[in-house]
Design goal:
The protein is mostly helical. It has two domains: 1-30; 31-121, Cytochrome C3, CATH 3.90.10.10. It contains five helices and two strands. It has helices spanning 2-27, 51-57, 60-63, 92-107, 118-121; strands spanning 34-37, 47-50. The chain has a two-stranded antiparallel ribbon. The structure holds heme C (4 copies). Residues 47, 49-50, 53-54, 58, 62-63, 96, 99-100, 103-104, 107, 112-115, 121 line the site of one heme C.
């Protein structure tokens, strides 16, 4: 009987540990290696954004610039609307273009293979 109780307690501990680790894994969203970026009603080909290439080399907060914890960021479109400026946040298309292109234009002369032409990002 006592041994059964002990086994039971061990089992409960085991299950709680698993539940706890699942919860903390959830708190940290894991982004895809490559994220397909597409604004609502976009006409051009969606942009394949190699997230992991960037996240390895660049500080998270450079892009996830308004998040309390950049490891659990909101989508850009939460604050950047389709067409309107909201609380000084430019519309989503401009937000992406400014963020992505400014850095690429600076990085390219230093030898980085960072696309700056329309069709290099909007691949057909
Ligand atoms: C560094 C990458 C990059 C380059 C270079 C770039 N764009 Fe974009 N563009 C994006 C991203 C990211 C979005 C938002 C996701 C999407 O495509 O819907 C976007 C969105 C757009 C949109 C709105 C969505 C749509 O499909 O209609 C238009 C229009 C657009 N870009 C036009 C251009 C034009 C024209 C050029 C060249 C002058 C250009 N872009 C160059 C990354 C880029
Ligand atoms: C060069 C810009 C850039 C850098 C640097 C970057 N990210 Fe991102 N990240 C993005 C973009 C763009 C998205 C897509 C957001 C969207 O869909 O609106 C994204 C998405 C994510 C998502 C998924 C969010 C969701 O709800 O879908 C997570 C998690 C994330 N990033 C974490 C990180 C972490 C952690 C780092 C640093 C180690 C990092 N990012 C660095 C641009 C970047
Ligand atoms: C929690 C809200 C929020 C999120 C999420 C957010 N932004 Fe912003 N963003 C703002 C606000 C507010 C401004 C205007 C005020 C400012 O620039 O400080 C802004 C300004 C900008 C600007 C123009 C100013 C500058 O820094 O050059 C760009 C570009 C930009 N955001 C890109 C992005 C991208 C790309 C993402 C997703 C990776 C993103 N933002 C996510 C709220 C947000
Ligand atoms: C702060 C700087 C910075 C920002 C912001 C940034 N990039 Fe980049 N990007 C780079 C650099 C540097 C490279 C070259 C990486 C290399 O050579 O390994 C690159 C490379 C790329 C490539 C080519 C990857 C390859 O393997 O050929 C694509 C596509 C790209 N970026 C898309 C984007 C898009 C879309 C955004 C905006 C959501 C963005 N980048 C924002 C710096 C940046």
């Amino acid at each position: 009987m006592r041994q059964e109780n002990l086994l039971c307690m061990i089992a409960i501990l085991f299950v709680t540990t698993i539940i706890f680790s699942i919860n903390s894994a959830k708190a940290q969203k894991t982004p895809a290696e490559t994220i397909t970026l597409k604004v609502q009603d976009g006409k051009l080909a969606p942009v394949a954004f190699p997230h992991s290439v960037h996240a390895k080399a660049i500080n998270c907060a450079v892009c996830h610039h308004k998040d309390k914890d950049p490891r659990t960021p909101e989508k850009c479109g939460t604050c950047h609307l389709a067409k309107k400026v909201k609380e000084k946040a430019p519309p989503i298309q401009d937000a992406f273009h400014t963020k992505c292109q400014t850095c690429h234009i600076e990085a390219k002369p230093k030898g980085a293979s960072a696309p700056t032409k329309c069709n290099d990002c909007h691949k057909k």
